[in-house]
Amino acid sequence: MVVLGDSLSDGGYYGFKLTNTGEDLWHEYLADRLGYERATTTLFGFNGLNLAISASLIDDLQRQVNRLGSRYNFQASDICTLWIGGNDIRGNPNQNMTPLADEIGDIIGQLHSIGIDHIIVPNLLDIGAIPENPSSGTRAERTAGTIAFNTALANELDARALTHSITIEQLDIFELFDGMLFYAADYGFENVTDTLQDSGSSQPDTYAFWDDIHPTTRGHFLVSSAAYAMLEPLAPIEVISQSIEADGALRQTWLADPGMTHEILSGAQVDAMNTVNAFLGSPAYTVEIAPPSATSGFFKTRK
After folding, report:
1. Total-model pTM
2. Collapsing DSSP states into helix, strand and coil, what is residue 196?
3. What digits encode the pLDDT tens for the residues 215-257?
4. From 3.40.30.10, 3.40.50.1110, 2.60.40.10, 3.30.300.30, which CATH number describes the 2-171 domain?
């Protein structure tokens, strides 16, 4: 696994990670799940295949690619991750997003030219929803800027995948975090507005954000779960939480392959269940399904 990007992926270029002290980032969890060697870095990035650097802008990607090309020859089974853009939006949420997306596309073209044919590109979580107080623009402008960037990025990635005949996995982080923040308790979060770093809490996994900008390692784990569900065709539906309400209704939150149709079935008998809900294209899903009958019933999920 080879990693490009900013502080969301930086494994220690400056000697630390920007999440819970000593804990893992999303691509580290993902490498373990896939059976890949983790991408690592040394102080100031002199060695390793994690080229991500905290505070990077999209303009900084070229230097990361240059370092990569000088130290490694790609193998056919390698995966590259590229997650960047948040600092550009934080700096100016009202800029034209198309040139930023085009620049990422150009970088992908260079990666393809050195042999990379499988790239994971997460989009941005809602920059208007992070705890940081905006230094430029308003929260609403940051949200609008995030949506504009994600749209431009998706269009560019679709075009590059066709042009270069490569696999580009688009991980929808915006939708994932939108669900996490809205259905916080279902994901195990008790606080999605304050920061763990400032709290002194002894229950770090109940916080969504480590500091004003970055997720806790629990958030990184959920990102890795969504990525794994997308990458691995045989990955099971990963249930994050479930409960039976007082009236017998099922409440369930799960992560699943966004490229497949998923169904929830229920019935009064295990061999006589009917589809009561189906969806396509969501990396995370929270739903409440009415009980099959007043006295007993069964639920089942499948893809």
Report:
1. 0.93
2. helix
3. 999 999 999 999 999 998 778 788 888 888 888 888 888 888 8
4. 3.40.50.1110
